[in-house]
Amino acid sequence: MKKIIILGSTGSIGTNALEVVRKSQDKFQVVGISGHRNYKLLIEQIEEFKPKYVSVGTDEGYEKIREKFPEIEVYLKDEGLKELASKDDYDILLTAVSGAIGIEATVEGIKRGKRIALANKETMVAAGPYINRLLKENPKAEIVPVDSEHSAIFQSMLGGAKKEVRKIIITASGGTFRGKTEEELRDVSVEQALKHPNWSMGKKITIDSSTLVNKGLEVIEAHELFGVDYDDIEVLVHPQSIIHSMVEFKDRAVIAQLGAPDMKLPIQYAFTYPCREESLAMEPLDFMKVSTLTFEKPDHKTFKGIQLAFKAGKIGKTMPAVLNAANEVAVELFLKGKIKFLTIYEIIEKAMERHIPLEIDGVELIKTVDRETREWVYSNYER
Ligand SMILES: NC(=O)c1ccc[n+]([C@@H]2O[C@H](COP(=O)([O-])OP(=O)(O)OC[C@H]3O[C@@H](n4cnc5c(N)ncnc54)[C@H](OP(=O)(O)O)[C@@H]3O)[C@@H](O)[C@H]2O)c1
Fold this sequence. Notes:
Layout: E1 2-7, H1 12-22, E2 28-34, H2 39-49, E3 53-56, H3 59-68, E4 73-76, H4 77-85, E5 92-95, H5 103-111, E6 115-118, H6 121-137, E7 142-145, H7 148-157, E8 165-172, H8 182-185, H9 190-193, H10 203-211, H11 213-226, E9 233-237, E10 243-249, E11 254-258, H12 264-272, H13 287-290, H14 305-315, H15 319-335, H16 343-354, H17 363-381
Parallel strand pairs: 1-2, 1-5, 2-3, 3-4, 5-6, 6-7, 8-9
Antiparallel strand pairs: 8-10, 10-11
This protein binds NADP nicotinamide-adenine-dinucleotide phosphate (NAP).
């Protein structure tokens, strides 16, 4: 039985992961979970999964959980995530919190030689070079991606040697506003931006999908995870979200991974890799219902998220951390109704323009750059 800690168990990936565990017929045991504000759901999860360790983001949640479950070790806020990841008695750390808050816990998991089932793409974007260095220093640790595109690439990579890869093709649904013009995007509402055509996800990643910043973050994530040059990464819009991404090899063979748009598949794969286990949580893919698979080029002029990420990625150093932090705050301000949709691009562009990139020497520098960027965005755009 594999022992799992889920950071972000109250979110979209976290609840899907618990469903995988529920249907796994005792193949997995949840030893730790964390939530931030939603302590009521966290309490329900504690009752069902009986973890040894819990972390929560609010003082109220902390008091309630400690009172109700005196036998459990309860931790609080960012330090709590680190505490959970620092435990020794687990096998897999699923990082499913939203945003750069996941970096330090991921670092702790790697230092302890654990498998990181990585959903939290912001960690790889903001701290990729540092995480890769840590992986080299801790050869027992490994990352198995959970993001559906990176899981697909990871699985497709098994079809050849790394030196035989010609390019990676990341597919994109195109998001909520595919086909819209800049003029049409000017006054879109939060509610409109939150309606994703194929996936049911947390709010931050849903907005990121509608700006295509999510795809940009995935480009940087792919570069860091698979060591492929930016010039060998292509993004293709595939509105049906059935092909989750592909790898083209030198002989022009293209290997892809297909499946229904359901995160339970990549989550389970990250738990069972290198094996594949029977999945009771997943429906089979019905090709008769899919019938057509179509592809188109992304509209980079209107949706600047991908190009901004290529630019930040190619500059490297601390620039991707700036892109990530600026985007996180911009999305937060958009969700609060304080800025317009297109201002998200403006914020990222300006934050990158003013930043002088520095070589990443450790987590403290990333935290400093992250904090300074956030402060700059708040002071200039929060009204
Ligand atoms: N959803 C998807 O299908 C999907 C697909 C690919 C990759 N991902 C990635 O997976 C990660 C999670 O996405 P999601 O859609 O599951 O997000 P979500 O539904 O918003 O869930 C986020 C989780 O993180 C917790 N959290 C939020 N802020 C926190 C903080 N400051 N400190 C500690 N915990 C905090 C939330 O707790 P509360 O809810 O209790 O406040 C919740 O458990 C993101 O990095 C995303 O890019 C998601």
